[in-house]
C-alpha cells in the first residue's frame, strides 16, 4: 500500500508549502501544532479541513486571523466527523451533477476530548456510513483548552484539574480508552497510530489515510507541556519515550489487519530494548505523586497495564502467537 | 385568473407534500434522522433516492445533531441542503441551530411540530420550535399541506437570498397536517426548478484580501467558523439581526412571485388576516388551528358578530408593523398559544403580540389562551367560547383573567 514515490524526505518536506502556517498562537512546545503541520504536509492535492472545538481551533483562527491555507470550517465540539460527512456529501453531489471535476480530500481534526468522549458518536456514525475522509485525532490526553480536565484519553494516574492527585485519590483511577482499536472494530479501511517524534512515519500514515477509499483514522500522540507539566523543549523527546516504553506503540490496521510499525517492531523483536515506563513518567509532573512512597505501587500498575496491552497488540500483529 | 402554470392535484399528507417539494427543488444534500411524525418526509424521500428519481446525496445520520451538522457543512461547501425534525430531535439540534445561523448557512428544515418530553408525547404542539425562536432561524408556520408544499419551495429562495443568508424552518402541525391527506396542487417539476434556480454564492472579502465565493473552495481558501471574541463577535451578531430584517421583505417578494406562478397567496407572506378589516374582536394563532378558527369566524359573522382572525405565517422575523396595523382597531384580542412559557405569564405568541401592540394608538385588550398541548384537539366549541369571552371583555371593558388554559381538565 505504500507508494515508493512518497519518500517524504526532509528536503522534499521542507519545500512543500506550509498549509498550517506559523503565526498561530499555540504554546511553546505544543505537540498538536506539530501534528497538524505534519499532516498538512502529507496532503496530496485540493483539501478541505474541519476542526472540532479545542486547542487547535482556538489557536489557529482568532478572527480576523487564520493559520489555514486550505478551506477550513469549525462548527462545534462533538461533530468534527459530521462536518466531514456533510462536506464529503456536498462534494459527491457536486461531482454527480458535473459541477466538480477534481478530487478533494477531507480531513477532520479533533483532540482527545472531541474524539474519545463527546465526539465519539458522530465519529462512529461517520465511520459506519463509510464517508471518504481522514480523521486525525491529536491526543494530548486531557481537555487542555479548558484547563487540563481529564478525558477518556487521560492515562491512569495522571493528575488533572478534575482528577487531581489528592490525599485520598491519586489522580485518574481509570485507564485510557483504546480508541484506535475501537475504530479498527468499525472495519474501516485504514487505522493507524503515529507520533510527532517520528515525522516520516506520521507523514506516510497520513498520506495512506488520504489514499484509502473510505474512512481513515489516525491517532497522533501529541504531548502538551502545559498539561503534562514538563519543559517545553522536551515535547519530541517525551513523544519518543512513549513509543520506546510501549506506552504508545506505533501500528497500522489495513482492512482491520494489524501491522506493527518499524519503531515498535524493533522493540518487539528485541524485547530487551523496551524501556521501563518509570523513565517516561518521571519526566512529567502530572505523575509526580506516583513517585511518593504512598503511591509507588501505581507505577507497577501502569507498567502491568502497558505490558498487557503490548502483548495483546503483538498477538494481533502475529508477532506473539494468537490464543 | 393569474395562474400561469398548469397544476395537478395529488392527495398528499403534509409530510409527503414536503418530500415532493424537496424532490422538485434540486436539493443537493439531504441529511436526516428519523423522529415521529417527521418520518414520512424522509421515508418518501428515501424512495425517490432508491428509485433514482433524484440525484441528491442522502445521508442517514446517527443523530439529529449530526444531521444538522452535515447540512451545515454541506451548505458551507456551497450546495443546497435540507433536513427535517421535530420535538426531541429539534431540541438535540439546538446547539447547531445557532451555529448554522451564525455561519450564515441557508439550510432549509421542515419541523413537524410535536410536544417536548416529559411526559413523552408524539402529538402536536409548538413547544419544540417556539423555544428556538431566538436562534436566528426564519420561522414559517403553515396552515395546511398545500401551504407546506408552497412554503418549502419559497424557503430556498428566501434562505439563499444574498441579503438574507439565514436558515429557514417551515413548521407544520404534527398529525393534523403531517399525516392527514389533502388535495395538494403541484406545480410542474421544471417550473419549481426554474423558480428556485441555482443557489447563488455571494462574494466576500477573504483573509487574503481577495473577493472570493463564500464557501469552502480549495481554489479560494476561506476560514469559516473561527474563534471570534469581543472585538468582532458583536458586529457579526448585529449583521444577523440586519439579515433578519432583510428577510421580511424577501419573504414578501418571494411569496408574491410564487403567487403569480401558482395563484396561491397566504396574506402577504408574513401575516394572513381573515375578516379583520372591520373586526371588533379577533384571535391570533399560527398553524392549522387557523382553519378551524376561520370556520368559527364565518359562523359568528353570519350572526352579526364582527369577529376576525390574524394568522401569523411568519413568526421570525416578527412582522411587528403588520401585527399592529391589523389589530390596532380591534377592541379585544385573544392570542392562542399551542405552547407555554412556564412561569412566563403566558405563551410566546402572546408576549410578542402584546409587545407589538404596546405602541398602538388605541391599545386593545389582549388575553391569552394556552391550548392543545400534547395534541389535545381544539374544537370549534372552544374557539367559540374564546370569542364569547372577547365579546364580554369588549362590552364590560373588564378582563377577569389574562392567561387561561383552554380545553384542559381543571
Shape of chain A: globular
Oligomer: heterodimer
Spatial strand order of the main sheet of chain A: 2-1-3-4-6-5-7-8
Radius of gyration of chain A over alpha carbons? Answer: 19 Å
Major protein interface:
A-B, 47 and 47 residues
Task: Please give the alpha-carbon distance between the first and last residues of chain A.
Answer: 28 Å
Order of helices and strands of chain A: HHEHEHEHHEHEHEHHEEHHH
Q: Domain count of chain B, please report it.
A: 2
Total helices of chain B: the number is 12
Q: Which structural class should the secondary elements of chain B be placed in?
A: alpha/beta
Description of the molecule:
The complex is a heterodimer of chains A (323) and B (410). Chain A is an alpha/beta fold and 323 residues long. Chain A has a single domain, classed as Thiamin diphosphate (ThDP)-binding fold, Pyr/PP domains (Rossmann fold). Chain A is 38% helix and 13% strand. Chain A has an 8-stranded mixed beta sheet with strand order 2-1-3-4-6-5-7-8, with helices on both faces. The longest helix of chain A is centred in the last third of the chain and has 20 residues, at 297-316. Chain A is globular and about 70 Å long. Chain B is an alpha/beta fold and 410 residues long. Chain B folds into 2 domains: 8-202 and 226-262, Rossmann fold, CATH 3.40.50.970; 271-406, Rossmann fold, CATH 3.40.50. A 7-stranded mixed beta sheet of chain B has the order 3-2-4-5-7-6-15, with helices on both faces. A 6-stranded mixed beta sheet of chain B has the order 12-14-13-16-17-18, with helices on both faces. In chain B, α9 links the parallel β13 (281-285) and β14 (307-312). In chain B, α1 (14-24) crosses α2 (39-50) and α3 runs parallel beside α4 (87-102). The longest helix of chain B has 30 residues, at 233-262. Chain B is globular and about 70 Å long. The chains are: A alpha/beta (323), B alpha/beta (410). The interface between A and B is large, with 47 and 47 residues.
Amino acid at each position: 500500500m505504500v507508494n515508493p514515490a512518497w519518500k517524504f524526505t526532509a528536503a522534499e518536506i521542507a519545500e512543500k508549502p506550509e498549509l498550517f502556517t506559523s503565526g498561530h498562537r499555540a504554546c511553546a512546545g505544543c505537540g498538536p501544532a506539530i501534528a497538524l503541520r505534519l499532516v498538512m504536509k502529507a496532503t496530496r492535492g485540493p483539501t478541505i479541513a474541519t476542526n472540532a472545538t479545542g486547542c487547535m481551533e482556538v489557536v489557529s483562527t482568532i478572527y480576523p486571523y487564520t493559520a489555514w491555507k486550505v478551506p477550513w470550517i469549525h462548527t462545534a465540539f462533538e461533530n468534527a466527523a459530521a462536518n466531514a460527512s456533510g462536506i464529503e456529501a456536498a462534494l459527491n453531489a457536486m461531482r454527480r451533477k458535473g459541477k466538480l471535476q477534481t478530487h478533494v480530500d477531507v480531513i477532520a481534526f479533533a483532540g482527545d476530548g472531541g474524539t474519545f468522549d463527546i465526539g465519539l458518536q458522530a465519529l462512529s456514525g461517520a465511520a459506519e456510513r463509510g464517508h471518504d475522509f481522514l480523521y486525525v485525532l491529536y491526543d494530548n490526553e486531557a481537555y487542555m483548552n479548558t484547563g487540563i480536565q481529564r478525558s477518556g484519553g487521560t492515562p491512569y494516574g495522571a493528575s488533572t484539574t478534575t482528577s487531581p492527585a489528592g490525599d485520598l485519590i491519586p489522580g485518574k483511577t481509570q485507564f485510557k480508552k483504546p480508541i484506535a482499536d475501537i475504530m479498527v472494530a468499525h472495519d474501516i479501511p485504514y487505522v493507524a497510530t503515529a507520533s510527532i517524534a517520528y515525522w516520516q512515519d506520521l507523514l506516510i500514515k497520513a498520506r495512506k489515510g488520504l489514499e484509502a477509499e473510505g474512512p481513515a483514522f489516525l491517532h497522533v500522540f501529541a504531548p502538551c507541556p502545559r498539561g503534562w507539566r514538563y519543559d517545553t523543549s522536551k515535547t519530541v523527546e517525551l513523544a519518543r519515550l512513549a513509543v520506546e516504553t510501549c506506552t504508545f506503540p506505533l501500528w497500522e490496521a489495513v482492512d482491520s489487519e494489524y501491522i506493527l510499525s518499524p519503531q515498535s517492531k524493533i522493540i518487539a523483536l528485541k524485547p530487551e530494548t523496551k524501556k521501563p515506563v518509570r523513565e517516561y513518567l518521571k519526566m512529567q509532573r502530572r505523575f509526580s505523586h506516583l513517585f511518593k512512597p504512598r503511591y509507588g505501587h501505581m507505577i507497577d500498575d501502569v507498567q502491568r497495564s502497558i505490558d498487557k496491552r503490548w502483548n495483546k497488540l503483538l498477538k494481533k500483529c502475529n508477532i506473539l502467537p494468537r490464543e | 385568473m393569474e395562474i400561469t402554470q398548469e397544476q395537478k392535484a395529488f392527495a398528499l399528507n403534509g409530510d409527503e407534500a414536503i418530500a415532493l417539494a424537496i424532490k422538485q427543488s434540486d436539493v443537493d444534500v439531504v441529511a436526516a434522522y428519523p423522529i415521529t411524525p417527521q418520518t414520512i418526509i424522509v421515508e418518501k424521500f428515501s424512495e425517490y433516492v432508491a428509485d433514482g428519481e433524484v440525484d441528491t446525496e442522502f445521508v442517514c445520520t446517527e443523530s439529529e445533531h449530526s444531521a444538522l451538522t452535515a447540512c451545515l457543512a454541506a451548505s458551507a461547501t456551497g450546495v443546497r441542503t435540507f433536513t427535517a425534525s421535530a420535538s426531541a430531535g429539534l431540541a438535540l439540534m439546538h446547539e447547531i441551530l445557532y451555529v448554522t445561523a451564525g455561519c450564515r448557512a441557508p439550510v432549509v428544515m421542515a419541523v413537524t411540530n410535536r410536544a417536548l418530553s416529559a411526559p413523552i408525547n408524539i402529538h402536536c404542539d409548538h413547544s419544540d420550535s417556539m423555544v428556538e425562536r431566538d436562534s436566528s432561524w426564519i420561522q414559517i408556520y403553515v396552515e395546511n399541506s398545500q401551504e407546506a408544499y408552497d412554503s418549502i419551495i419559497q424557503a430556498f429562495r428566501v434562505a439563499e437570498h444574498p441579503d438574507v443568508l439565514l436558515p429557514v424552518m417551515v413548521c407544520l402541525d404534527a398529525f393534523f397536517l403531517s399525516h392527514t391527506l389533502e388535495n395538494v396542487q403541484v406545480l410542474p417539476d421544471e417550473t419549481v426548478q426554474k423558480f428556485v434556480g441555482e443557489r447563488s454564492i455571494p462574494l466576500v472579502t477573504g483573509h487574503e484580501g481577495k473577493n472570493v465565493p463564500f464557501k469552502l473552495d480549495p481554489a479560494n481558501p476561506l476560514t469559516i467558523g473561527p474563534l471570534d471574541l469581543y472585538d468582532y463577535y458583536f458586529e457579526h451578531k448585529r449583521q444577523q439581526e440586519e439579515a433578519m430584517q432583510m428577510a421580511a421583505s424577501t419573504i414578501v417578494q418571494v411569496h408574491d412571485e410564487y403567487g403569480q406562478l401558482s395563484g396561491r397567496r397566504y396574506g402577504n407572506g408574513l401575516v394572513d388576516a381573515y375578516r379583520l378589516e372591520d373586526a371588533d374582536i379577533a384571535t391570533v394563532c399560527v398553524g392549522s388551528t387557523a382553519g378551524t378558527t376561520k370556520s368559527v369566524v364565518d359562523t359568528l359573522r353570519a350572526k352579526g358578530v364582527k369577529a376576525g382572525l390574524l394568522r401569523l405565517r411568519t413568526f421570525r422575523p416578527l412582522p411587528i408593523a403588520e401585527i399592529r396595523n391589523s389589530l390596532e382597531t380591534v377592541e379585544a384580542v385573544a392570542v392562542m398559544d399551542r405552547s407555554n412559557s412556564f412561569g412566563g405569564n403566558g405563551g410566546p405568541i402572546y408576549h410578542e403580540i402584546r409587545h407589538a401592540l404596546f405602541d398602538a394608538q388605541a391599545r386593545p385588550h389582549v388575553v391569552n389562551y394556552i391550548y392543545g398541548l400534547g395534541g389535545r384537539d381544539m374544537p370549534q366549541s372552544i374557539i367559540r367560547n374564546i370569542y364569547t369571552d372577547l365579546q364580554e371583555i369588549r362590552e364590560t371593558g373588564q378582563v377577569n383573567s389574562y392567561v387561561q388554559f383552554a380545553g384542559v381538565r381543571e
